[in-house]
Amino acid sequence: MKFDTVIIGGGLAGLVCGIRLQKAGKKCAIVSAGQSAMHFSSGTFDLLGRLPDGTGVNAPLEALKNLPENHPYSLLGEDTVRKYTEEIPAFLEECGIRVSGDASANTWRITPTGERKSSWLTLGDFTALKSKDEKIGSKALIVNILGYLDFNTKFLADSFEKQGTECRIVAIKLDEMERLRKNPSEMRATNIARVMDRDGVWEKAAEQVKSMIKDEDVVVLPAVFGLKDYTVVDRMREAIGIRTVFVATMPPSVPGIRSQMSLTAEFERAGGRFLKGDAVVDAEFDENGHVKSVGTQNFGNIRLYADNFVLASGSFFSKGLIATPDKIFEPVFGVDLSYPEGRDQWFDRNFWNRQNYISYGAKVSKFLHASIEGKPIANLYAIGSLLAGSNTLYEGCGGGIALITALAAADSILEK
Q1: E strand or H helix at 370, and its extent?
Q2: What is the 3-state secondary structure (H, E, C) of 206-275?
Q3: Mapping DSSP to helix (H, G, I), strand (E, B) and coil, where does residue 53 land?
Q4: Which residues sit opposite 8 in a β-bridge?
Q5: Displacement of CA 17 from its chain's centroid (Å)
Q6: Taking burial as the number of CB atoms within 10 A of a residue's CB, which of 50, 299, 309, 405 is the most buried?
Q7: How far apart are CA 351 and CA 184, in angstroms?
Q8: What average pLDDT does this structure show over 89-111?
Q9: How far is CA 122 from the centre of its chain?
């Protein structure tokens, strides 16, 4: 099979790159092995939350100049990053993903444990706070669903009360949830959301919540509504009648999965080929050292040929990078990686400390070309969390790197 571009990886970076190319008239295929990090999303796309030295960042665009030269943002340049941050909100809206936020100043979101974390773009389900210390209200009614264990109401209450918000915790009980409650493993966010999507169920939930309100001025609910239709969240807010704040739950993430489905649908509507549940296993190069084709598990002897290839396979989490006791490698093309040889430098034994291995990944040029044995491959690009130079978890920049490098690689291909 012949395509203009084959993209390896169906997460945020791969899909955004594919959508950009497909809408520009390029014939693209995305090979996706399974779940992406979006299934674990807490509802935001982060641009830059802090610098590598731990300094907190309030104005991400102003802080770009303080990043090291091998950081993905530094490779692309401040002007390029700024340009894409201005474009991305509208791009996501066109894909059916509602966001709020501005790259000039971070806002704050409420995490599943009730703590506050800075963010760039916040999904429409969630409430973006202007400051870390902003109160959500004077009195909060924290509402869980009976039997649901992945929504930590006590953690939330403790955190809100530190901000001066008085809290009361209750739970609603819906007959439609009884089958799920018989098996605790079935009471997961996505299963609950599927039930809530049925006619009349979310309305019952809203009615129960409304009946429990006394003198509270804010209701707090788990983000388990609107798996297929984000307007359910708006209608819940309207039906409850007072300020309603949805908080991300422990994974899986309903808003994250919905965003993944929206991007996939947009790619396929544009004519793209999404090869779900498949994995690239090998690559073929021509006499000039360019990638000629790749083989996949499902297609056997039928190879995927393309003019360009984009590696968006992610980091260790999605097996885009593999670690053995003595080395780290990229399993498809064997691209050059940046990491120290001494394994004792890879990680900190304290799980909660900064983990260095998160910053390891593919070496790329300013045009995001990957290299093999020191030689840049003109038709092979690497994007997203596969890239070296940033500790996306520590710095809070994973979403921004995925979105910005995806568009930059796509535009580089189009400019050819």
Answers
A1: strand 369-372
A2: HHHHHHHCCCCCEEEEECCCCCCCCHHHHHHHHHHCCEEEEECCCCCCHHHHHHHHHHHHHHHHCCCEEE
A3: coil
A4: 31, 311
A5: 14
A6: 405
A7: 28
A8: 96
A9: 11
Q: Residue 56 pairs with which residues in a beta bridge?
A: 50
Q: Is pLDDT at 222 greater than 90 in this prediction?
A: yes
Q: Provide φ and ψ at 170, rounded to 5°.
A: -135, 175
Top-ranked range on mean pLDDT: pick from 16-30, 104-118, 184-198: 16-30
> Residue 299 burial (CB < 10 Å; 0-12/13-18/19+)?
middle
116 token code pair: 């506050």
Report the C-alpha gap between 203 and 121 in whole angstroms.
Answer: 29
Q: Give the position of tokens 């009360």.
A: 161
Q: Which of 327, 228, 274, 273 is nearest to 36 (CA)?
A: 274
Domains of the chain: 2-105+257-415 (3.50.50.60), 127-247 (3.40.50)
Q: Taking the CA atoms of the chain, what radius of gyration do you get in angstroms?
A: 22
Alpha carbon distance 379, 307 (integer Å)? 7
Average pLDDT, the chain: 95
Residue 134 has phi, psi (to 5 degrees) of: -65, 130
User: What amino acid is encoded at 228 in this protein?
Assistant: K
Q: What share of the chain is helix, strand, coil (3-state, %, to 5)?
A: 35, 25, 40
- Tell me which DSSP letter residue 173 carries: -
As a dihedral over the C-alpha atoms of residue 90, residue 92, residue 94, residue 100, rounded to 10 degrees, the angle is -60
Q: What is the pLDDT of residue 416?
A: 82
The strand pairing partners of 171, in sequence order, are 144
Q: Looking at residues 32-54, what average pLDDT do you find?
A: 90
User: What are the structure tokens assigned to 111, written together?
Assistant: 């995490």
Which two tokens mark 174?
């819906």
Q: Does the structure show a pLDDT above 90 at 345?
A: no
For CA atoms 43, 406, 130, 238, the dihedral sign is negative
CB 146 within 8 A of CB 181: yes
Contact 303, 284 (CB under 8 A): yes
**117: DSSP letter:** E
